[in-house]
Write a structure and sequence with these properties.
Largest sheet: 4 strands, antiparallel
Oligomer: single chain
Number of domains: 2
Distance between the termini: 10 Å
Helix content: 10-25%
Number of strands: 12
Shape: globular
Radius of gyration: 17 Å
Structural class: alpha+beta
Length: about 190
């Protein structure tokens, strides 16, 4: 099982103008540190200021900052994912029914909407309750799914356990030129 906090540009179509510069800035502020290879992919250890840049909630959070080992993907590490050529929908086993931004209607058929969106990226969904129309990216995904072309993945963070600090979000905004959001991802079966 893997639990992640993902950071992403606030608008799904946005990508950082220079991803190398973004990664260098994250290292410079102490968010990420030296690289490591996991399953043939480049990841990074948390930097010296990681615990100040990611705010852990609750009275005694457990953060495994060590080496991968018995806990598998649950040790904390970081990967920069993208930019992808097209907007991606990212969700895990923790996805909740999204809601209509206009009236809060709970959308039970969200999987069908996503399948249709993959075939037609210009798809518009019409709420059966309030009648307003929205693109799937505009639905309220309740921090358990998101659309984007670029993501920063942070392993070892359980849903609701931590949030990016204002300082981290400001650094991302400064280097990219736009605002960022976040959501939580849980993957139970990784085979």
């Amino acid at each position: 099982m893997a639990n992640l906090l993902l950071l992403h540009p606030a608008r799904p179509d946005q990508i950082p103008p220079d991803t190398t510069q973004l990664q260098q800035r994250m290292a410079a502020i102490g968010f990420s540190a030296e690289p490591l290879t996991i399953a043939g992919e480049r990841h990074y250890r948390p930097g010296e200021n990681f615990l100040q840049l990611v705010t852990f909630l609750g009275c005694s959070p457990v953060v495994a900052l060590g080496e991968p080992g018995i806990t598998g993907d649950e040790f904390c590490h970081i990967a920069f994912d993208g930019p992808h050529d097209t907007v991606q929908f990212v969700s895990g086993d923790n996805v909740k029914q999204p809601r209509c931004p206009g009236c809060g209607y709970r959308i039970e058929e969200w999987q069908t909407i996503i399948e249709q969106w993959r075939d037609d990226p210009d798809l518009i969904w019409r709420c059966p309750l309030c009648g307003k129309e929205y693109a799937p990216q505009q639905l309220r995904w309740r921090q358990c799914a998101a659309f984007g072309r670029y993501f920063i993945r942070i392993w070892g963070i359980f849903e609701g356990e931590a949030v990016p600090s204002d300082e981290l979000l400001a650094a991302l905004r400064e280097v990219s030129g736009f605002d960022w959001g976040y959501f939580y991802l849980q993957l139970k079966d990784q085979s």
